[in-house]
């Protein structure tokens, strides 16, 4: 995995057309991705909404998910927000950069709780219509164990499908704000 510093990442990002934003739920991937899409004049693609979920939290069949991802990555300018590693073999070869929002688990849990409170009983804007915001014990366990269980898989997938792609790890809200400030200053 080719990790770059925050300033290197901002410099590289200014010239990128295709960026994958990954990380644990509640870390701020969607908020950051939407801000990046706006600043970089790219299409914002939320994987949960575009590829993974049908109304009522019904998972889209995997072959349909993959076909949709194949079509989406053909575009020249996109910010793709989502971590599911099952599509890394499709999107990483087309990505020019990976931003890994790698927040501490308590920050992610607080983010998910805040999001649930704001959107309770409703579908948040970046989610598939008909998928109201929810939180349950399995989701909390997923967040709590993300670094231990999912991070090694992500690293393996990046090494397999995007070894030479720069990876910028953002480990705090301050890092996220700094990245956006650096991009704003360079434009």
From TrEMBL:
Keyword Nuclease: no
UniProt name for this protein: Adenylate kinase family enzyme
MF terms in GO: kinase activity
Species per Swiss-Prot/TrEMBL record: Allorhizobium borbori
Keyword set, alphabetical order: Kinase, Transferase
Keyword Kinase attached: yes
